[in-house]
Write a structure and sequence with these properties.
This protein is α/β, with parallel strands linked by helices and 506 residues long. The protein folds into three domains: 5-87, no CATH class; 126-358, Type I PLP-dependent aspartate aminotransferase-like (Major domain) (Aspartate Aminotransferase, domain 2, 3-Layer(aba) Sandwich); 369-501, Aspartate Aminotransferase, domain 1, CATH 3.90.1150.10. 38% of the residues lie in helices and 13% in strands. The chain contains 17 helices and 17 strands. It has helices at 5-10, 15-22, 68-81, 101-107, 109-112, 124-144, 157-171, 187-198, 216-222, 245-261, 341-358, 369-387, 413-419, 440-445, 449-453, 466-485, 488-494, and strands at 32-33, 40-42, 89-90, 151-154, 178-182, 202-206, 227-231, 271-275, 294-298, 309-313, 391-394, 403-408, 423-424, 426-427, 429-431, 436-438, 455-459. It has a seven-stranded mixed β-sheet, sandwiched between helices. Strands 11-12-17-14 form a four-stranded antiparallel β-sheet. Strands 1-2 form a two-stranded antiparallel sheet. A hairpin with a 4-residue loop joins strand 15 (429-431) and strand 16. Helix 4 runs antiparallel to helix 11, helix 6 runs parallel beside helix 11 and helix 12 packs parallel to helix 16 (466-485). The structure holds pyridoxal-5'-phosphate. Pyridoxal-5'-phosphate (PLP) binds next to helix 7. Keywords: Iron, Iron-sulfur, Metal-binding, Pyridoxal phosphate, Transferase. It comes from Malassezia psittaci. Pfam families: Aminotran_5. Its cofactor is pyridoxal 5'-phosphate.
Length: 506
Amino acid sequence: MITTSLRWGISGTRPLYRKAIQGRTSLLQRAYVSPTSRSPLATVAHEANQSSRVANDDQDHDAHPVSREEIFSRAIEGNWSERPANRPIYLDAQSTTPTDPRVLDAMLPFYINQYGNPHSRTHAYGWETETAAEQGRQHIAELIHADPKEVIFTSGATESNNMAIKGVARFYKAKKNHIITTQTEHKCVLDSCRALQEEGFEVTYLPVQSNGQINLDELKAALRPTTSIVSVMTVNNEIGVIQPIREIGHMLKTYGAELAKELGRGTPKPFFHTDGAQALGKIPIDVNDAGIDLMSMSSHKLYGPKGIGACYVRRRPRVRLEPIISGGGQERGLRSGTIATALAVGFGEAARLAKENMARISDTNLQYDHAHISALAKRLQDNITSRVEMVLLNGDPKGYPGCINLTFQYIEGESLLMALKDICLSSGSACTSASLEPSYVLRALGLDDANAHSSLRFGIGRFTTEQEIDFVCDKIVAVVNRLRELSPLWEMVQDGIDLKSIEWSG
Ligand SMILES: Cc1ncc(COP(=O)(O)O)c(C=O)c1O
C-alpha cells in the first residue's frame, strides 16, 4: 500500500502526526516520490530505532522499513518503469536535477519536528538545528577541501555570484577598479559585471577559443595592477567545457601578485572567483590546489533542494567583501538572514553523497555518477552520430560528459523541440522579450546564427536511464530525418550546392 507522510501529516489522527507532536520522534514516517514522476514511489522508512514502534490501531500494517539505499535503487528503476505515460523524459540536468530521495530523507525531520531557529542560542530547539546546519556546512566544505568557516550559505548560485563579484569589487574600489570575466559566463555573472560598469568599474570580457576554453595568454595580457577580481566559471552550463582553473589560480598568485605590488606593498593579488554551479560534485574541486578564493555553488544542480546555495570565501589570505544583504550579521556578517535548516541539511547531504560517489570516480560500476553518465553520454552520441549526418559537437570533447551540445545542421532547433514534445531539452536559442536570440555562448565559440539555432543541449544525470537514452535517440533520428526531408535547404545541400555562395534576395 502506498501512503505518504503528507497524507499522514494532514490527517491529525494518523500515527505520524501524533508521533510528531509527541515530540522527539525517532519513528518519523517518511514518504518518497520518484524524482522524475509525480507518483509516490516507496512508502515509509523508519529511523534506526525500530523497537519503539508505536502500537496503534491506525498503524499502517503494510508499511515496512526501507533503507536509503533501497529507496535510491527504487528511484532509479522507477524512473523508467513508473513514469506516467504523459510525463516527458527529462534530459535537462543543467537546468536543474531532481532531489535525490536520500536527500529528502535527511531533510524531512527539519520540516516536521526539529523546527527551531538555528540562530536561537537559548534553547534546545535552536541548538539541534544549528548542529544540523553546521553538519551540512561541513559536508559542503569537505567536498571542496575547504574549512567549514569558509562556506557561506546563500539562496543559490545567482546570489553567490552577485555577492562575490559585487562584494569584492566594491570593497577594494578605492585602489582597484578593474574586473575580468569571460564572454560565456552565466547571465548572473555578466549582469553583475554590467551593474558594476554602471557604477564606474571597468570590465574585460575575455573571448573563448572554438572549444570554449579561454586562452591563458589573453588572460595574462588583460591583467592589470588594478584588477580586483577575475571570474571564470569552472564548467559551462551550455557546452560543458571545463576551464583551466588551476592554471588561472596559479597565474593570479604569481604574475597577478607581482602586478599588484605596483600599487604598493600589501596590495592583495587579484582574487579568483569561479562559478562552480555546474562543477560541484561533478568533477573534483580542491579550492587550495586550484588557488580559488571564492566559489559559487548551487544545491539544485547537485540533486539537492532548490532555494539554497553557498559561496566559498577564503579566510587565509583573507578575502574581504562588502555584503549585498544587511541584517543580523549571520554567516560571518557576509549574508544576513536565518539559515533555512532543512535546505542546509539537504544541500549538505547532497554534497556528502556526491563526495562518496566521486571517491569511486574510477569505478566502472555504473551505479556511480561519473561512470554512469559517461556511459550514457557515449551511448547517446554514438547512436545519433552513427545514424544522422551533419551533426556537430559543440565545445570540448574532454568537457563534462553530462552536458552534450549538438548542432543538427539545416534544421531549426525550435522546430526540433516542437516535434520532441515528449522530451525535455534546451535549445541553442534564448527567449528574449521580442524574439529568439541565438545563444551567446554558442556564438562566442564562433557558430553562426543558423548553427546556433540548430543546436540542442542534452543534460544527462544520476537518474537518467539507458532506456531513456535509446528512446530519445530513436526520436531524434526520426524527427531530424523528417524535418530535413521537408527542408529545401537540405535538398540543396544534398545536391552539392554551397549555401554560402548563394545570394539571397529580399
Ligand atoms: C553556471 C551557472 N551559474 C549560476 C546558475 C544560477 O544558479 P541558481 O539557480 O542556484 O541561482 C546556474 C543555473 O542555471 C548555472 O548553470
